[in-house]
Amino acid sequence: MPLTLGLIGSGAIRTALARLAVAAGLDVVLSNSRGPETLSELVDTLGSHARAATPAEAAQAGDLVVTLPLTALDRLPADALNGKIVLDTGNYYPQRDGQTAELDNDEITSSGLLQRHLPGSSVVKAFNSIGSGQLFALARPARPPDRSALPIAGDSAEAKQETGHLLDLLGYDAVDIGMLADSWPSEPNNPVYVEPYRGVAPEGLEPKEWWVWSLEDPGTPVGAAQVREPVASMERGPSRAGLLPAGLTL
Ligand SMILES: NC(=O)c1ccc[n+]([C@@H]2O[C@H](COP(=O)([O-])OP(=O)(O)OC[C@H]3O[C@@H](n4cnc5c(N)ncnc54)[C@H](OP(=O)(O)O)[C@@H]3O)[C@@H](O)[C@H]2O)c1
Prior knowledge:
The chain is an alpha/beta fold. It has a domain at 67-233: Rossmann fold, CATH 3.40.50.
């Protein structure tokens, strides 16, 4: 039986994941806050392996479930996520997400917060360190030499193994960077976060033009060593909170 990917929220990164998943023959169950009927156009685009449901139904259906970021912790269907592998694509941008003292003080990672909120689930940080356009463009399910790697982190070895299998099906190698407490190198302001996967932008773009360019950018492949080596030598910086360029929202 094919794996099923549950998606709570169907924003840019989860839509890119849905596209890759159906291309790999997985089933996907999408959801959002406004109801399954508002996702019909996206479901039609994705084809017969996709359907829309409520967040709780998407959580129940998924072998692995991709969740909402920090801002929506209280709205997650915790009961339906019990016993599930929960993939956290989230990054902490205080201007967007609101200030969280524990994150500002480096007392916990954003995925650690999610794990604390979902004690019955196995949280794995994944897919947070690459833009949605590059996630789609750099996927290489056929394993050519220029296959890219993505960092993953989590407290359950079994959940990380399943996540690595998912990455492989979608077209990526996984680099295990440790426990959730070790996941900070994959977050904003660190060398394996987003930038290495980007191509070179044309000069002189305004922030909004740059954003449009970044969605179409075919990206630059990043191999496993390019993830593993900087992470191994990284010292924790003063903050993992992302800073948005002026004029941009994510
Ligand atoms: N975008 C990227 O390229 C990218 C890349 C890597 C990591 N990330 C990180 O991934 C996280 C998600 O970003 P994103 O751009 O994919 O999407 P997003 O803009 O955070 O998510 C929007 C989606 O979440 C849904 N949603 C909001 N509240 C909900 C609720 N209570 N129940 C169910 N669905 C709900 C929205 O549905 P409605 O529209 O119906 O409200 C919409 O489908 C962020 O932390 C971001 O930093 C993003």
